[in-house]
Amino acid sequence: MLTQKPVEILTVDLSSGQASRSQIRDKEIIKRYIGGRGIALHYLLSNLNPQVDPYAPEAPIIFAPGVLTGTFVPSSGRTSVLFKSPATQRIFKTNVGGHFGAQLKFAGYDLLVVMGKAEKPVYIYIEDDKVEIRDAAGLWGKDVRETNRLVREENDDPEVQMACIGPAGENKVAYASIQVSIYNAAGRGGGGAVMGAKNLKAVAARGTKGIGVAHPEKFAQTVSRLWDKMNSASGVKPLSDYGTSIGVESTNAVGAFPVKNFQQGSIDNIRYLTGPYLVEGGFLKRKLSCYSCPVACHRFVTVDEGQHRGTYTGGPEYETLSALGGGCFITDTAAIIKGNELCNILGLDTISVGNSIQWLMECKQRGVVSDQDAAGLDLSWGNTETMIELIKMIAKREGIGDLLAKGLKVASEEMGKDSYKWAIQARGLEQSRVETRSAYGYALAFAVSSRGPDHLNTECLAEFGGSPEARELIKRITGSEEYAYPHTTGKRPEIVRWHEDIYGASDALGVCAFPTTAQFWVDEWDLADLFQSFTGIEVTAGDIMEAGRRMVTLERCFNGMLGYTRKDDVLPYRLMTEIQHDAMHKDAVNSEQMLDTMKDEYFALHEWDIETGLPTEDTLAKLGMGEFVDKINGYIELK
After folding, report:
1. CATH classification code of 436-633
2. What is the pTM of this model?
3. Which pLDDT does position 176 carry in this prediction?
């Protein structure tokens, strides 16, 4: 049996060219924050001035593989990436699968903190105890696929795994992604731009140390139980067969598939945007899996004929099929795959790209811009060539692509002419492809999320009641299955808080959010058993959920220190003021009154101040976070 292991932190300062190692040995800190996202947030609030410019050398970017990443726990290959977002000017956590996190753990590191700015393009090479900052002049300007190929050739090692940026990150596009294992994206918030500002092209990792387990027999028993639960879960096979796009057709059928920049809730010819059609149309060549994941929900697709012949890429996911497809009024499967390929290799978040293009098309619809403003591109709805060309222009920051590269908040402010009314963003983040006017739990989750309006901090899919497991979960959270219905404000705060807590715990442990927040075959008792048997630290299911709550609270404190309070907990203007007329229920709008009612209850559940929406000193003390009170009070006064 192993003794408790410390958290191993590798810090690389690009300005000085030095690497250093440190540890967190305090058992209570590890128990309170678990690892991954939690430990990284603790580090940031302990060490970072929240008012730092996201592009400043002293603004860190942290790669935080989960506690279980690199083990044989099913669906446990996740890595959180944390930074201050250039898009939102807030703390930002994004999360990614692939194989990079496992190699970082095999090299012996639980956290990689990158500080400073290199004088010229570099990449970081990590091989166990060897850490080098290498010249990347020959990589700068290369796309993601080419960068991976060249680094692997240089090291004569096809097993090297990378987190790297494409030209979009080099050009500091506000929503540039970090690409892992080529087709997996730490996509939202502009982490790729932060790397670009540091002249950091890539982090390459190769580890051979392996990972020790405190209680191997108990750990193996827990993993075996999870395999049994996975094999009996109703949502696993459809996700494995068709990926996240399995939900496209049903969402469209109920009028909740955002079309034409959220002007409509459905589109004709939806079949061409579905997972089954990727198979039937001959696009799907194989399934792809993240490290230690038997579900393999990712797709690998090719286009073998027609205008886009020769295209090959991972995906497209539900979000991409909506953002580059229905949102732009496009149902040309091959064109969407081409757009997806460009985003993957240029290093762009498909959600923000798609929303930006839709906004521009609506600007044309409303007479705010003309085709001439876009270098003669036809900005009419459904133009596939325009969608593809605008992706390239955004990555290169050419022409009107430079405006779109700033993000919708800034772009609509600069455009003026009331264009903010159809800029589907809030707090600087373009909304992900959930029609919150048809899902009130999501509406609350999106309004209060530290990231902005998207689903990747709080995936409260259970509110739809779409499976036996979902309905049973809602009953456990609320006391009744009747709340497994999205068109009510009843019990939404309870549903949201449960999901955000377990999402935080999932991120910290490195477990994919699908098993915990979408398919429900991993619960807080499972996470507690995994953490305890792996680390040797005794925890309960309640401890696991409370750790998730600390992460949510830390993010709230960080953003509060920047002056963001309850008044900023809003959704995009259109969704709060315009009724969705093709929804399945009447008066489908996320009104201010609706949100206020739910926010009152949500803040009360958290024991936060109702007026400001910020944690109180008493709440921080109850959560064992009193150490941060003095620092927070240096920026704002807590009640």
Report:
1. 1.10.599.10
2. 0.97
3. 98
